[in-house]
Design brief:
Length: 110
Amino acid sequence: EKENRTPGYMAYIPSDVRYDKELKPNEKLLFGEISALANQKGHCWATNKYFADLYEVAVETVSRWISHLAEKGYISTKIVYLEDGKTIKERRISINFFRDDEDDEEEQEY
C-alpha cells in the first residue's frame, strides 16, 4: 500500500497549459502537482524520484516531462548548491505565471 504523499494544497493548471496540444496529458498533470507543492514555499522542491514514485513511471520519464514544461516556458528550474559550490543541495521548480486573458478591458461571454 502506498503511503499518503498527497499535499493538502489545490493544484492549478492554467488554460495555457490545459489546452497546449504539444503537452502530454501527464505533463499537464505534473504541472498541477508542481503548482500544488509550490503553494507551500513558493517553489517545488520535490525530486524526480518523488514524482516517479507518485505516478509509477521511470525517473527518466519525469525528467523528460520537466524538461518539456521548462522548454515550453511553463516552469523554471534552479539548482541550489551547498557552500562548496559543487554539491547540490536541492532543485527548485517555479511556476511561470501567465495571464489567461490578454485583454482586461473587455469581458468575454461564453
